Amino acid sequence: MGTAKTLSEKLWDAHVVTADENNDLLYIDLHLVHEVTSPQAFDGLRQAGRSVRRPDLTLLTEDHNIPTLDVDKPIADPVSRTQVETLRRNAEEFGLRIHKLGDLDQGIVHIIGPQLGLTQPGTTVVCGDSHTSTHGAFGALAFGIGTSEVEHVLATQTLPQRKPRTMAVNVNGELPPGVTAKDVVLALIAKVGTGGGQGYVAEYRGPAIEKMSMEARMTICNMSIEWGAKAGIIAPDETTFEYLKGRPHAPQGADWDAAVEYWKSLRTDEGATFDAEVDLDADELTPFVTWGTNPGQGVALSASVPDPETFHDESARTAAQRALEYMDLKPGTPMRDIAVDTIFLGSCTNGRIEDLRAAADVIKGHKIADSVRMLVVPGSARVRLQAESEGLDIVFKEAGAEWRGAGCSMCLGMNPDQLAPGERSASTSNRNFEGRQGKGGRTHLVSPVVAAATAITGKLTAPADLPAAD
Amino acid sequence: MEKFTSHSGTGLPLRRSNVDTDQIIPAVYLKRVTRTGFEDGLFAAWRQDPQFVLNLPQYKLATILITGPDFGTGSSREHAVWALQDYGFKVVIGSRFGDIFSNNSGNAGLLLAKVSQEDVEQLWKIVENHPETEITVDLEARAITASDGFTTGFAIDDYTRWRLLEGLDNIGLTLREDDKIAVYEANRPAFKPTTVPVRTAG
Question: Does the ipTM surpass 0.95?
Answer without folding.
Answer: yes
